[in-house]
Specification:
Number of helices: 9
Strand content: 15-25%
Order of helices and strands: HHEEHEHHEEHEEHHH
Distance between the termini: 53 Å
Oligomer: single chain
Length: about 260
Amino acid sequence: MDIQQLDDDEVGGTSLDHFLAEGLITDVVRIVKTGKEASVHLCRGNRSTTGEDLVAVKLYHPLDRRDFRDESIYRDGEWIEERRIRAALEKKTRFGRQVQGGLWVSREWETLRTLSEAGVPVPRPIASTDDAILMGYVGDLELAAPQLRSVRPDAVEARDLFEQVLRAIERMLYVNVIHGDLSAYNLLLWDGRVTVIDLPQAIDPRKNRHAHALLERDVRRICEHFERFGVRSSPDRLAADLWTAWQFADLVPEELRTGLEI
């Protein structure tokens, strides 16, 4: 697809041009998903630079089209040194919105890097600009990986997927990350494996006073989703056990735990 044929307001032509100029992508195939803050586009990757034949570009919409959620809960405990920027964010001026938009992208980029390095099942981060992230693609040329909400597993499959998601939550917490908005809408399923997506609001439990409540909400949403497929669980107990293990530095992902036991 010729990028010039695409509406810049829809796909952020400048960022796509940048990824093309850097030799990271060779073509834009199609739009995979459009949301309130961003759209996701399937692109052909340059294997020599990205290691991938297919990649995804998440492009944040122009500021006047973004539907920013209230960030106060997610950004609790974070400190921005420059007073002018703090004031602009608090007053929600146009400059403040521009700063907020840039922070939204950079936070997702840094979170993806942290989680990818820790072995959490997230799309592999490849490159970023002020309004876009180039990452690994989940799916094939004909079909993007579906959201978990659209999958109807049998009882055995549901139990396996449930445990995969809990392991992902545990490993995220192990590296001091809580998703903060986890649900069947931001979990993808491909070849029997779950991938966690949409992480700009992720928080650090060492800094955020709402961390425990956000973890509880994430766990509860997952438990409620899988209960429809016969998976019985106790979300309050699961969240409490995870939180206690994290507080006492006793949280060790399963594969690391196995190694230690040996």
